[in-house]
Amino acid sequence: MRQTPDNIWLEILENLDDTARQDVYLRQVIPLSITSDALRIAVPSVYTHDRIERRFRTAIQSVLATLIGAQCMLIITVDESVSDIPEQVENPESEINQQVETGLNRNYVFDRFVVGSSNRICHATALMVSENPGREYNPLFIYGGVGLGKTHLLHAIGNRISANYPEKKVLYVTSETFMNEYVESIMKRTSAEGFRVKYRRADMLLIDDIQFLQRKEGTQEEFFNTFNDLYLNSNQIVMTSDRSPDTLENLEERLKSRFEWGMVSKIEMPEYETRLGILRQKCEDQGLDNMSDDVLSYVAEIVTTNIRELEGMLVRLIAQSTILKEELNVDFARQVLNDVASPALIPQRKTATAKGIQTVVSEYFGVDAAELVSEKRTKELVLPRQIAMYLCREMTQMSFANIAQAFNKQNHTTIIHACTRTEELIKKDNETREMIDVLMAQLR
Hints:
Strand order of the largest sheet: 5-6-7-4-8
Helix content: 40-55%
Strand content: 5-15%
Distance between the termini: 59 Å
Shape: globular
Radius of gyration: 27 Å
Largest sheet: 5 strands, parallel
Number of helices: 21
């Protein structure tokens, strides 16, 4: 990659400690030129010049020596006009760009997001970003499976910012939209500058499904430059993905690194209580105050995949009830779901216990049930223990914390890891999948 002043400056910031990277004065720097002998930067005031000299010159010089060579010196000049550069950019499409829709869905707000143990951390970080844009967790990277509420949080952040800071330019797009607009800007040279102004002048960029930039080398390059521009100007960036940054394949390492600069937060599969809360929220939104709690509990029990499936099943029940003019009770719900839903979505009610699961699993693998809850970490216990933890999550209404307690674990992250590991095995290995089916059948 060609060395440019901007690229070198970003590399320097990346190698400084967190305190320096977040320093407001370093964010005012405009990189001017780079040679083997000197990196020239401009700052808007003598005060900023002196602060950088006193606090950061030694650290910056050390990074420069690594990147360019010991002979490369940092030269800081004062230019009062650099702080006004963004306002002086002229573009014939500027007025049009100012009128670009934010792309936000006004129905997705924090008040309508149901919070549970599966999404509490994501919700808290999203809320903090909406209250302190550009200062708290920049960038924010939210990842998790399909239909778990990532897009809802993304829009909620944008809607909160738009309400509290109407002067800020908030822009929500999918990565596919970003790519399509970039390709169009290449094909129509006159729109290239308009594309850059649109994205790089945003005070907040919300970009959904960032994983679709994989294998799109040209789009990755453009997003890299857009990211750098926004970040250096302390403009907030929030992204969602179906997987964590480090597991994104065919994505440049420099992008992965930047995605992890701020906060990476995972949103989990919703537990029973959260699923029930989501269904109640859906009924409230639609004015269905007389919906039976028994029906909602039944739906929350059998649909464990994601929120979209959950809401879709409720809509289906209401539609069938209206068309057939039948009372929407548990018996009717059971009949409809048995007819319509796939067998995978209709397990028996979650009546298993942790003790029962530990007994069945230990007998299946020929190990002592007491050893499953012991501190032993022998090879023959690892798989049975992880499967038992996974079955507790799937076949009981226990929370991660409760399962951890049942297995004498102090930290519930052990349970999360076990469930994730078992799910991966089920997807990749038919023998494991069949084994799980046999164990579930026994437990039912």
